[in-house]
TrEMBL record:
The keyword Transferase applies. This is 3-phosphoshikimate 1-carboxyvinyltransferase. The keyword GTP-binding does not apply. One of its GO terms (biological process) is aromatic amino acid family biosynthetic process. Residues 1-21 are annotated as: Disordered. Its main location: cytoplasm. It comes from Halovenus carboxidivorans. Catalyzes the transfer of the enolpyruvyl moiety of phosphoenolpyruvate (PEP) to the 5-hydroxyl of shikimate-3-phosphate (S3P) to produce enolpyruvyl shikimate-3-phosphate and inorganic phosphate.
Amino acid sequence: MDVTLSQSTVGGRTQAPPSKSYTHRAILAAGYAEGATVSDPLISADTRATMRAVEAFGGSVDHDESANRLDIEGFGGDPETPADVIDCANSGTTIRLTTAAASLANGLTVLTGDESLRSRPQGPLLRAIDQLGGRAESTRSNGQAPLVVGGPITGGSAAIPGDVSSQFITALLMAGAVTDAGIDLTLQTELKSAPYVDITLEVLDEFGVSARKSKNGFTVSGYQEYDAGDGYTVPGDFSSISYLLAAGVLAARDGLTITGAYPSAQGDQAIVEIIREMGGDVSWDEDAGELTAAESSLSGVEVSVADTPDLLPTIAVLGAAADGTTTITDCEHVRYKETDRVSAMAETLRKMGASVTEERETLVIDGSASTLSGATLDGRADHRIIMSLAIAGLIADGETTITGAEHVDVSFPDFFERLSQLGATVSK
Ligand SMILES: O=C(O)C1=C[C@@H](OP(=O)(O)O)[C@@H](O)[C@H](O)C1
Ligand SMILES: C=C(OP(=O)(O)O)C(=O)O
């Protein structure tokens, strides 16, 4: 599906979509439990993949739409060997978190996904499972899915790099809690995307499971039981909020308010400070969970995305609209996502007339070079590339067409409807 946007003014109020990261973890944690209810879940292509995995391991997931709730029966820490291949579709979180769950089962599990997912790195997780006594292989021996994974692992120690994906650590901590011996992880390189492990520790805590940072990495003891008590409620998603905030500072003459924006462990909350540092008018009433952004003149910043990889496309677009130079550093791990997002943003923003320089770890956008012009842009089947380019389309001269725009269903299924309700000119 192609979507076309033209220069627009936006405004009004809109609710933040529920967090994808918290929803994935809550669904799987409910799977590791006897069951749980998960309120305000994100229902999207990626979270559906995690629901399918919980069902494949012997649980069940019922979506009560009127109550806006998932009623989940778990597999009680003891996943059965799936009767079929697990299709993780486009979701890195699903394949990493469920690969570790599969290492608890007696038999073998086959995990795969779409072309993008089958090109993303899984090697460090496979090697860690191997060190823990499980069997974990890439069918093509290239460290990528399809994967064949079996166990049962009983816990122990493993070493893992921290700069490829934090999801490997999340995966092993979640599985480690139901092993006999627990899991001790030693980081071989500095941890990137660290706040995502904090999100994991927060969700584990809500499910009565303790895991913690150790001197050299992370550790979780075994024989723990997942139990969410009265249930778990998912907070709003700050990666999704970043597009709405960017729309606000670029195109909301009378302001745009986002509700459901409460503080949590999400590193992507940093978008509020980044926009303020660029000169953007953003106010945040943390108690009310309300963020308001109004059209502002922005200037360039230097910002590290070591902890916040998913913000890179949003910051790149803000940089293209700002006066002066925006330098995004520490971005190598952003190349291992649904697509190489560093080169995708460099290519598309250049096509819109921005001046962009790309290095392995750095993306530099010179926003003062020109105003953006509409163009036909390849969304690279990547929800974050598509959503950030749509925001650029709100301020570009002429029409901006984004191909493959249906892929927003991964994290923000009604993104274009929302933009349109807020006043943007959007046609499909
Ligand atoms: O654990 C998570 O929920 C996520 C972790 C991050 O990935 P990496 O840890 O691979 O950087 C992030 O980019 C992804 O969107 C969601
Ligand atoms: C990279 C992302 O997710 P995942 O790793 O789960 O595919 C994302 O949502 O930007």
